[in-house]
Amino acid sequence: MAAPVMDTCHVSCCANRTPNVVSWGRGGLIAFGTCNSVALYNPQVTLLIVLVFVHLLLQFTACAVCSGHSGPVCAVDGLSLSSSQLLVASASSDSTVKLWTCSSDAGTIGSVIITSLAVPVLACGGDDSRVHLYVQLNGQFQRLLTLSGHEDWVRCVEWATKGKNKLWLASCSQDCLIRVWRLFAKAATEPVQQTDAVLKMKENVFEVSGDEFAVTLETVLAGHENWVYGIHWQPPCVKGDSVEQPLKLLSASVDKTMILWGPEEDSGMWVELVRVGEVGGNTLGFYGCQMSPDGFMILAHAFHGALHLWHCDSNQGEWRPSVVISGHFNAVQDLSWDPEGDFIITVGSDQTTRLFTPWTRNGRSEITWHEISRPQIHGYDMQCLTMVGRFQFVSGADEKVLRVFKAPRNFVESFANISCTPLEKLLGSDLPEGASTPALGLSNKAVFQGMNPLNSLATGEFPPTEDDLLQNTLWPEVQKLYGHGFEMFCLASDSERTVVASACKASKSEHAAILLWSTTSWKQLQSLPCHSLTVTQMAFSPNGRLLLAVSRDRTWSLWRRGNPDTDTEASFSLYANTSKDTAVHTRIIWSCDWSSDSKYFVTSSRDKKVIIWGHCGSGDSVGECEGESVTPCSSVLDVGDSATAVSICPYLCSDQSYLLAVGLENGKIVLYKWRPSEDLSSGSDWSRCGETDACQSHTLTVKRLRWRPRPGRAGHGGNEERAWVQLASAGADHVVKIFNIKISAL
Which InterPro entries does this one have (predicted)? Predict the structure, then answer.
């Protein structure tokens, strides 16, 4: 089979913000839900290497779809009954638990709203503060016992085995407590010597098929200060010829801590063995926890979707934080490469701006991508950004203000170590050490030397942990730009990084004007009115002479810059545009881009059409032919779905054709080659040369596509790198992806 045209080199994502969404398998893989997908990755590369995303979804196929619940399914568990039969239990907010074998509905249990469950004996915890036990009798599960004690919703229950006749059941609740119950067969227990001094726990006795069983409360664990959302027993391990399950219980709470509990060897009293967690930050604690099969790594997933990993140092016995995969927890709206193509910055509806870069560890050849900075943690959903220098960017959110950020010294020093660049070439004068956000504030304030201790980022030894990303990697805000009347929607900057164009949401023409800003004085230069509805995207031509804008009103406008020799400030005037009468697109135009030679630009629309424009047949850059109109230079390409993103590769294919990437509403990314042709009737000017497969595609709308501005793969070196290009994509499915494409083979 031929190698795929597009090779995925990086996927950034995080866990959904809900309990019961992470599972650590016995084979070592961690699975977690991210938006409406399941992500798999392997944490066993090395303890100080970021967890590499594992593309195994192509090896997994759906063998059954269990439909029957009338409400959201909030928990599932499974048990292998035999080599060919699987029992699955599912709990839903429709107040039912359903048991499934193969693909048929084996039964329904009416109850309260179920929040957690576990098998082999079915235990259900609900909003009635009780734990209900069900046992299968005559092919049906029947409730035999109800365990009381919790004083609020039961959030999680889980079984453990000890010996042949004992089961341990742990339950946690919003009452901040954990209860451990012991279930055993009465016949297997030794009789207790009756004396006046013996205190005996109450036993809840029940009978199944003539055998007598009892459940007793073993212990109540009090150590958390807020709701306990998740618990997890240490998985069974092989010792000699037998399989044993250690009696160690992990718990996770909204108080931002995880605790590992276990009984003392001498007294048998349950005590706190280890406590780990967050310090500071603006998060709201943990939703759940998992433990590695060998018991030397523990994982928590937090309210903001972040994964937190700790490993046990086998030499010193200390638990230390490890680097873990990270990403946005809501739709990723925009992204941009830095001018040198060494890192990407992304913004999302999760109100964060994140920076990802490749990292090469000492003594190793593999290159992996990591989030090394979170420059902006905002109070509004982020919408757009543009780079205005190597270490400076402008961002816009669901507010009327644009904000300008500049990298602090601690980031530049860290980046110098990563990229093996002399620090002197990167450092500017009078850079602050870092930034911090005041309480109840939205602006990142600069922190200078002596005001805040530096973290370990500048050593370049390993990427920052989630705690560091939250607290120690902010960039100072250096400017605010006021002028728009509604929420920001799109941004663009010219190739010289001297002018920034901005546009906001608009339902009337007076609000749809484009504003131009100087990056030296940060003053408003000009207002460009033309469109009647929101300008959805803008792009400056690579030669800096033209500004292209596309809009919800189904038209595009082209603005030409005045003579820089005579104009002290940038002055743009309308050069060409389409109107409702001359428009080719019949629906909203979502995206646009320029060819690297400034001869052509492309537009993509909800009408499924992609069109290339320019001065047809002239061979000149757009705007250089006086008297020549701007017309379609390509046949109309129907991509089969709403074309929500488009980008032209800055480098030509080996046959001198242009390479375009088109992002679709269904999440697929398609590659096309286009060559100018005099005959546009046949559509032969377009050729489809690649696309993402089911594993590589986004699962929701592609929001943005950006080619790396330099040839080669970021972080790699050598002459052979000129055969490669990289494409970054952002999706509404919360995911950022980077693809390697061998352009010489297209």
Answer: Elp2 (IPR037289), WD40/YVTN_repeat-like_dom_sf (IPR015943), WD40_repeat_dom_sf (IPR036322), WD40_rpt (IPR001680)
